[in-house]
Amino acid sequence: MSWIDIGALGDIPIRGARKVKTRAGCIAIFRTDEATIFATSNTCPHKGGPLEEGIVHGTRVTCPLHNWVFDLETGEAQGPDDGRIDTYPAKVEDGRILIDAALLGQKAA
Amino acid sequence: MKKLVIIGAGMAAGRLVEHVSEAGGWDITLFNAEPRGTYNRIMLSPVLSGEKTYEEIVTHDAPFYEEHGVTCRFGERVEGIDRTAKIVRAPGGDVPYDKLVIATGSTPFIIPLPGHDLDGVIAYRDLEDTERMMALQGGKKAVVIGGGLLGLEAAAGMHARGIDVTVVHLMGHLMERQLDEAAGYLLRKELAQRGINVLVSTNSKEILGRDGKVTALRLENGTEIPCDLLVMAVGIRPATALAAEAGLATGKGIHVDDQMITSDEDILAIGECVEHDGQIFGLVAPLYDQAKVAAATLTGDPAAFENRETATKLKVTGCDLFSAGDFAEGEDREDIVFRDPARGVYKRLVLHESRVIGAVMYGDTADGGWFHGLIKDKTDITEMRETLIFGPAYQGGAALDPMAAVAALPADAEICGCNGVCKGQIVQAIENGAGSLDAVRGATKASGSCGTCTGLVEQLLSVTLGDEFKLPTAQPVCGCTDLTHEDVRRLIKSRELKSQAAVWQELGWTTPNGCHVCRPAINYYLLADWPVEYQDDPQSRFVNERKHANIQKDGTFSVVPRMWGGLTNAQELRAIADAADKYNVPTVKVTGGQRIDLLGVRGEDLPAMWADLGRAGLVSGHAYAKGLRTVKTCVGTDHCRFGTQNSTGLGVRLEKKLWGSWTPHKVKMAVSGCPRNCAEATCKDLGIICVDSAFEIGVGGAAGMDLREIQPLVKVATEAEAMEWTIAFVQIYRENAKYLDRPYKWIAKVGLDWVQERLADEAERARLIAAFELSQTIYQKDPWAERARAEEAHKFAPLADLTLEAAE
Fold first, then answer.
1. Using CA atoms, how far apart are residues B255 and B275, in angstroms rounded to an integer?
2. Å between B496 CA and nearest CA of chain A
3. pTM for this model (two decimals)
4. Which tens digit of pLDDT belongs to each residue from A3-17?
């Protein structure tokens, strides 16, 4: 897998998120603690809410529109809601955030 | 019989006489420089204040000494000790001894200020000093130098006799050896309320006199405080002169070993004159222990003195104060603090390695003895840590089962502090048929005021009625905790939790950092209760408050600039129109709160749009905030032929005062200039209707999911008062309401009566306003301007845009 550097870890606050635009659509990059990063689809499967704007807690995010909660590791919706978001490889190295370069090439679904 | 001579007849010596004469075998001679036997010196303060007489505090009288065959040599000052001949020399004749006990006590320290030898400058040590103070006529003036235990007792005692008293204390707070700053503050407040003038951090310079009599104290800053009597109560020194002259080892005091034996094996020493293991003593409990040990040593029984924790109580009627152990701050120490400002209660426990090592209490000291026991016994308190500060009444069952804790409360335990209702009354009301919270409220008033005890009352219902009663409302905040919002608010205040991490940790959150339900609530409680200490956490805010704009269903935002009181002008409107053009705003709408809403703005465009609007003087309208939204107004006296007051002006002033503050839920207000009520003030969270002679303020209106008319809060005569009441109302709501309770919901819980009563108290109103203004110094700033700056603005853009890069 080849990695692409998308920014500094410090650009995302702890328990915060930022989005990255790709040809496949927007990806949300979550920082759940000091050095843990997750990359998922930015779009809630319920009504399309932007997940980067949600509240990040533990390794989960709550959609800002209707409070659907997703596990960032599996992408599965939690609780009574049924749905999932795509998750993507991401890691932190030397304070930089790296995601899978394959995301560059994907065509929007 | 062997001869025992005791020099000094203070409290330690008195106790020694009792022990030794009980054991028998000694011929006792008791010397006392004071012309009397043993009396309870620590009760001199009640004698001074007139609550007791001297006769009542005498512990050993002539018949006692006669009965026990004690030879009394009172009023005689011992001149010397001849250790080789084993003789005590005294004016009335020498006395030989087999064993000698020195109990000369201490002498008060007199600061060698110029004028300290004037007539009318005294210490506070013995009955003579007390009588000097008692002889002062009502209306005379006295100064007490020293705000320690004795000084304050002297001051309060004289004050009770009608003397005009000023206390001058060198340190920053009263009783600094026994109290921490907070308790010292409460004590000072109490004394000041009684009319005792208390000066802290104050240096004395000179005692002034005329004809050899004291007339005034001059302070370092030049102020002169006139006085007819000056009492120095700045500390005591062990009286070691006699022992030192006899060649005994002395330091700060007369050196003794664990058996109370001095450097001469036939001479013992006890009381305030001794130094044991580097310590000297001023409180009575260890002195009694020393007397016991000395008695054992004399009779040949093994015993060893061990200094133990001593508790202090101030003997000033009405000042309930308790202190025990060590309460200095330290790295490996933790505090549990409980404050109830309304009742003037402060409690602080200092913990070290799961043990209580210090306790300071003010206002409610009923549990002092129990805490003192925990300190002395070094009890491991891990199991009861959560409820420890509430005292033994809460330690009945498993520490964390609130039902068991309530069941274990004694009948006289106070449940409702606001209305002074105890458990017994509530249980009785329930047994008499009050089967619901409302019924109990109706019967006893319990939980009818501030509502923080609602949970306790419900638990009592449950405990008393068993299965017949279903707990209705003990709703935890969320799945992260079993605590209710009310519990969390109370604990944040009482345990001084000042960060989210502290809340999660100390209150046992089951998740590492909360969830989307609790985080915004906790963030609000912390910033409302600790505006200075706590830093707002954007990551715990719902998107609208983090972005300072309202998210729409398509992920775009709406932008509402503030228009004070609904007023705008051509320049602002032009700026709004230009922004709408520049950022392709699809929808422009006028809101119900007299504002203009620009809908459909892309998140990335927000900072630039705010910068443009800011240049025209427009700031955030907080249309997204749990905070002050709008103050809607009518045109009032400016243009309207019916207007009775300047409602527009008042609305603008209110909005300028209140904007930027965070509240439990959104707050909407309105001011109507006459009862025709064109600003629709009667369905707002707070609405003001101006009438010809007054401003009628109503609260708790709603026109959302529920429709409510405001209830009258107060009618005031001036605009200034209307401002005052409005600010105080907002602050009391900020301090007490559950997150996401609009005022009408909150008022339904606590009762309008409670709100009115609190706000009617002028001092409370002033406190609320001051607290609000302190918070505003931090939170009243335009969030748009802050985020329009380049270093912040980039955060609104994507972290990266990979659509522009070529795929490999």
1. 5
2. 24
3. 0.53
4. 999 999 999 998 999
